[in-house]
Amino acid sequence: MTGMEGTTIICVKRNGEVAMAGDGQVTLGSQIVKMTARKVRRVGGKHGGDVLAGFAGSTSDAMTLLERFEKQLDEHHGNLLRAAGALMKDWRSDKYLRRLEAMMIVADASEMFMLSGSGDMLEPENGTAAIGSGGGFAQAAALAMLENTDLAASDIARRSINIASRICIYTNNSIILEEIKQ
Description:
Elements lengths: L7 E7 L2 E6 L3 E3 L2 E4 L5 E4 L7 E7 L1 H17 L4 H14 L8 E6 L4 E5 L4 E2 L5 E5 L2 H14 L4 H13 L10 E6 L1
Antiparallel strand pairs: 1-2, 1-10, 2-11, 3-4, 5-6, 6-7, 7-8, 8-9
């Protein structure tokens, strides 16, 4: 998977809870143009918002992919695996979608996937997934907390973004957090 500059998204699963957090910073080159962008959303269309989605990369590209993903969720009756697979097929084969520069994490109460325009659809093994320029920092922090604390997934996700914001110049601590509890 290729890295995207300009954001940090982390998803953490623990004890029946799935939490996804993202920072709010939007940059244009070396300039901060917005500090409170919403890059994590609850989606699900007709199925009641039981899926979380976070994106990194070009905002317009990510919004296009988010709309397509939500359409696939509807077509596949909320089945995350099938919807993500269908989106990946479209993303790789459609001439317009192939040029989109974004990455996504999608998750429900039982599954989590990282999606990219290069055709990657990865299911993480360690209960965390991260994308964006600060993703590696946030994921390292999340893994350390998963292994050494009893914190809830939402606390780990929030703290991981905070830690990444101290290291990554493209990440701030204006955090949007969404969670699903079983």
